[in-house]
Q: What sequence folds into this?
């Protein structure tokens, strides 16, 4: 009886381990390098960095994160950031990008300009979810990223970016895709004094003077955070 009981318990533990492993792999923080087992016509060596000026790196007199990332992971990382662009106006660009560049992976960092221009959070997240759907339909593995918490002159948008980041985390879990949490990487701590909130406190040494765009050190942090995927 004891042997049968132990065997039964082992099977239960094994089943739990498999389930937990599956869930971890889906919520964005799963173990092991990211992969694309079904790239279709896409090139496993090409990664698309999709986003706005923070991806483009146009506000920092330094090497943008996609170029740094390329050197870290040994892949062709295409810098497809467009300064000032918004998620709600860039859904159509997703498919055009895939057709032109044929990436096997797409790193999506979008939404802060929408927040600055007063766009509804649900509309922003809906646009990002459409980007994810387009990736999946075209054999591209999407990755979502949260934003560094804005500070200094852009601190006024901190609450909106915080809510956006929470939505991006939820979306990554819902879609079963990987997440790069740049908010965490750029925060020195969290203010938990308000019930139900964890307000990020930005590490200001990682920003350009405007408090929105990463400086050289911040850009390197971004590249390393994305490199951990691979």
A:
């Amino acid at each position: 009886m004891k042997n049968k009981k132990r065997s039964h318990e082992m099977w239960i533990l094994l089943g739990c381990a498999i389930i937990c492993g599956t869930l971890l792999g889906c919520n964005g923080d799963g173990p092991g390098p990211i992969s694309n087992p079904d790239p279709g016509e896409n090139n496993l060596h090409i990664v698309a960095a999709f986003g706005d000026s923070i991806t483009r790196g146009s506000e920092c007199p330094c090497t943008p994160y996609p170029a740094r990332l390329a050197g870290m992971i040994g892949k062709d990382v295409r810098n497809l950031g467009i300064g000032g662009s918004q998620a709600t106006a860039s859904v159509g660009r997703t498919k055009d990008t895939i057709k032109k560049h044929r990436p096997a992976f797409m790193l999506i960092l979008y939404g802060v300009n929408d927040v600055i221009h007063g766009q509804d959070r649900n509309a922003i997240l809906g646009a990002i979810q459409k980007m994810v759907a387009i990736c999946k339909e075209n054999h591209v593995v999407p990755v979502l990223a949260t934003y560094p918490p804005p500070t200094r002159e852009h601190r006024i948008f901190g609450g909106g970016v915080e809510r956006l980041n929470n939505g991006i985390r939820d979306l990554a879990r819902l879609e079963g895709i990987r997440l790069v949490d740049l908010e965490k990487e750029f925060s020195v701590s969290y203010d938990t004094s308000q019930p139900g909130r964890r307000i990020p406190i930005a590490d200001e040494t990682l920003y350009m003077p405007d408090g929105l765009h990463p400086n050289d050190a911040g850009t390197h942090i971004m590249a390393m955070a994305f490199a951990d995927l691979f």
